[in-house]
Design a protein that fits this description.
The structure holds two protein chains of two kinds. By secondary structure, chain A is mainly alpha-helical. Chain A folds into two domains: 15-85, Orthogonal Bundle (Helicase, Ruva Protein, domain 3); 89-116. Chain A has helices spanning 2-11, 20-30, 49-63, 68-79, 94-114. Chain A starts with a helix and ends in a 16-residue tail after the last helix. Chain B has helices spanning 2-25, 31-60, 67-72, 79-85, 90-109, 117-141, 165-180, 182-194, 199-230, 241-266, 270-293, 306-334, 345-375, 385-402, 405-408, 416-422, 424-440, 445-470, 476-482, 485-510, 614-642, and strands spanning 512-518, 523-526, 529-540, 545-555, 558-569, 574-578, 580-584, 587-596, 604-612. Chain B has a five-stranded antiparallel sheet, with no helix packed on it. A four-stranded antiparallel sheet of chain B has the order 1-9-8-7, covered by helices on one side. Classes of the chains: A mainly alpha, B alpha+beta.
């Protein structure tokens, strides 16, 4: 039952941004904002100086009362779409965001079509694991 | 001289592979031709292995007249990394690819079993052409034995990130997995050429899929473990394009393992199994392309050379073109209507395939989408963890929800009510987990559901073992020992998936982290422990200089010391981190040393992480790989018993 202990530990962990919900928001935003200097790393993980500055900026905006959407928009206008690991929903990314639904729909249709056959006699349980 | 022997062996292996291809495909029912194809396959494999051995020898001897050695080795490098350096680079890794492909071809040639002459020899022929294609690419575009004149006195060294035991083993495991998928591909093409895929064919397919999947599981697990302790940010999976490149063939191989069972046992789903075999190898080639072409900027992509990338794409287009073309022309000939009920073992395996294939498709689109947008002039966008966590994770989660039901149902027509009744304790346990997790985590819904799914998988797997045990006779322990190996292998892999789920959700949702500046002598309270920076000093390694920080960790009842380093390898000028990890029952305390603080002399940035149950992630992956290996053992035993 070690996961119980860990949830308790996580709940009482100290936070750097005064308010624990604000700190959690900062940490999760830092994981989806891309370090503009590094290769495919979020600012939460990068050791580059610019990433440290960007992290400070996230915390500044949160302390100033900005919402998550405000902060994403702020970074987007500053550095472009590239900076967000969560691609925005617009004309270019419509296919991307619809793809999971389209694939699931096509797959589901194929499965249902496949199962036209008639079931035969009940199976033999012993056979199942030979 | 040794380099020339290697190059000569590779060229000779190419000629033999081509002979294997032609002889295998043009057997015309003659056993002697098939035997000649098999002999060619075995000779080609021996030659490829000699070539690989030659490459390792020039690396060990630091022969700087060979340009690959100059670019990727160094006299001061420890011996194990000189050896690993032979495949830790583009040219050497391609030679390894060829060697594995030839070796698998030779093994396939020696394992005909009950396969018909036509299917077996044609598959052998296709495999010959696969090896030949890889050899042509290696010899023409990335010759690992190319000489350099004049020879320099010293090499440039291996990327320091790669100088690590886990990463020395990571590429060969992935390549065994990728190339392992070439035999199912060859078998699929042979089935399409012959116009039939029988149960002996599916039986021949299964061990190769299992080899590929087991090696991919182990290789990906090693890579994740390496990322965890080497990259210094506490993460283990980032949906990086190169990680995705290995994850897509893994998903397809996982689907193929399950669909091949249906084809072998019930004779149905043959055409879908063939399609998956083609797709699996396609994804393996795509993975090779993504990693080796440098088309995606990512921490893993070391090689940058577009001409090579285009050549891999051409090989991919040939393989997929022939595969899909034949499939479109011939697949309808082998379609057998599947006879099974909506609730049956088969239908569960079909939904398993649905989930894995949809997940692979979404990963594919997400990975390639930024390239497409950029190519169409849409600018730069990033598709990262938020997208994949929102799309792939729910698909796989739904699949995992169904998983424990599968083994409880019989073939053809299953009894859902009876299965659910038997699984009731697991359902109850999972629901209790969700409620307790919700209560303790301040109503965070998704992590609570995730933990519930993990518990459901583990408990469901244990209940399956228990129900199988009830059929045996004698005492409990004897019954457990007498369970068929197939039951064990499946249960270990499925319970491993649950263990991995609990670890992944626990680590991702409940980790705590903190970055602070510390001067030696300072202490900080973190995750129920008191962490003190004792001192920071310089140490010399065999081929690097390191800044080493020593910490003391005090918690109630015990104290321990922890060392974290920043290493600088002068040959590359690239700093690397060596994190300090202190494992405990509730998870890892993970400490990474950052840079000195700019305007506070003597202070260092230190990043502290507490990663709960993170060990379960790697334990779960290991259990899945073990399940695959046990399943392979089962198939080998059966083949022996049948012979």
């Amino acid at each position: 039952m070690s996961w119980l202990a860990m949830i308790v530990a996580a709940a009482v962990a100290p936070a750097a941004l005064g308010d624990p919900t604000q700190e959690a928001r900062a940490l999760s935003l830092e994981r989806e904002i891309r370090c503009v200097q590094c290769e495919n790393e979020p600012i939460a993980q990068s050791t580059a100086e610019i990433a440290a500055d960007m992290r400070a900026l996230v915390r500044e905006r949160i302390a100033a009362g900005d919402s998550d959407a405000d902060i994403r928009a702020f970074f987007r206008t500053r550095y472009g779409d590239f900076v967000l690991f969560r691609p925005p929903l617009d004309g270019r990314t419509l296919v991307l965001w619809l793809a999971p639904l389209l694939l699931a729909g096509a797959g589901g249709w194929a499965v249902l079509r496949l199962r036209r056959g008639q079931p035969t006699a009940p199976g033999d349980p012993e056979e199942s694991d030979r | 001289m040794i380099a020339e022997i290697g190059a000569f062996c590779a060229a000779l292996a190419l000629a033999l592979s081509l002979a294997q291809g032609v002889l295998g495909l043009r057997t015309r029912g003659r056993e002697t031709r098939a035997a000649a194809a098999a002999a060619s396959a075995q000779a080609a494999a021996a030659l490829c292995l000699i070539a690989m051995a030659c490459l390792i020898v020039v690396f060990v001897r630091s022969d700087f007249s060979v340009s690959t050695v100059v670019a990727h080795s160094h006299i001061d490098k420890p011996l194990i990394y000189k050896i690993a350096g032979a495949w830790g680079n583009h040219e050497g890794s391609m030679l390894l690819w060829c060697a594995v492909s030839a070796l698998f071809g030779a093994m396939f040639a020696g394992m005909r079993g009950a396969q018909s002459l036509g299917l077996w020899s044609k598959a052998l022929g296709v495999q010959g052409f696969v090896t030949a294609g890889a050899l042509i690419y290696t010899i023409v575009l990335s010759n690992p034995f190319a000489r350099l004149d004049p020879a320099p006195l010293q090499g440039l060294g291996l990327n320091p990130l790669l100088q690590d035991p886990a990463l020395a083993a990571h590429p060969p495991m992935l390549y065994l997995g990728y190339v392992g998928l070439s035999i199912p591909f060859s078998l699929a093409i042979a089935a399409l050429l012959e116009g039939r895929a029988d149960q002996a064919w599916a039986k021949a397919l299964r061990p190769w899929t299992l080899i590929a999947w087991t090696c991919l599981t182990f290789g990906i697990g090693l890579g994740a473990y390496w990322a965890y302790y080497e990259l210094g940010w506490g993460g283990w999976w980032f949906w990086d394009p190169v990680e995705n490149a290995s994850f897509m063939p893994w998903l397809i191989a996982c689907a193929l393992i399950h669909s091949a069972i249906v084809t072998e046992r019930r004779g149905s789903l043959a055409s879908w199994t063939i399609l998956l075999s083609i797709l699996g190898f396609g994804f393996a080639l795509l993975g090779t392309f993504l990693v080796r072409s440098g088309v995606l900027t990512s921490v893993h992509a070391f090689a940058v050379d577009p001409s090579r990338g285009i050549a891999v794409l051409v090989l991919l287009a040939i393989a997929l073109g022939i595969g899909f073309g034949l499939y479109a022309m011939r697949a309808h000939k082998l379609s057998q209507p599947a006879g099974f009920a909506a609730v049956s073992r088969e239908s569960m395996l079909v939904w398993n395939n649905f989930g894995l294939a949809v997940a692979a498709g979404v990963v594919l689109i997400g990975t390639l989408y930024p390239l497409l947008v950029e190519a169409m002039g849409g600018g730069l966008i990033s598709v990262g963890p938020p997208f994949f966590n929102l799309t792939v994770v729910p698909v796989l989660g739904a699949l995992l929800l169904l998983l424990p039901l599968g083994p409880m149902l019989t073939w053809r027509v299953g009894d859902a009510r009876a299965a659910l009744k038997q699984l009731a304790p697991a359902i109850a346990l999972a629901l209790i987990t969700v409620i307790v997790a919700l209560w303790l985590s301040n109503w965070r819904v998704m992590p609570a559901i995730g933990l519930g799914v993990g518990v459901w998988l583990v408990a469901g797997g244990l209940i399956y073992l228990w129900t199988r045990m009830q059929r045996g006779e004698g005492r409990a322990l004897a019954k457990l020992a007498l369970l068929p190996l197939a039951v064990w292998s499946m249960s270990v892999a499925h319970i491993g998936a649950g263990v991995l789920t609990i670890g992944a959700i626990g680590e991702t949702a409940f980790r705590s982290e903190r970055g602070i500046a510390m001067v030696p002598g300072e202490s900080v309270d973190f995750a129920g422990r008191r962490i003190s920076l004792m001192d920071v000093g310089q140490v010399e390694g065999p081929n690097y200089a390191a800044t080493r920080a020593t910490f003391r960790v005090d918690e109630t009842g015990r104290s321990a010391s922890l060392v974290a380093e920043r290493r600088l390898y002068p040959t590359s000028g690239m700093p690397t981190t060596e994190v300090g990890i202190l494992g405990a029952l509730d998870g890892d305390l993970y400490v990474a040393l950052g840079e000195p603080v700019r305007d506070a002399p003597g202070a260092w940035t230190v990043r502290l992480y507490h990663n709960p149950v993170v060990q379960l992630i790697f334990l779960g992956a290991l259990m899945m790989a073990l399940g695959g290996a046990l399943s392979l053992l089962t198939l080998m035993r059966r083949a022996k018993a049948a012979a």
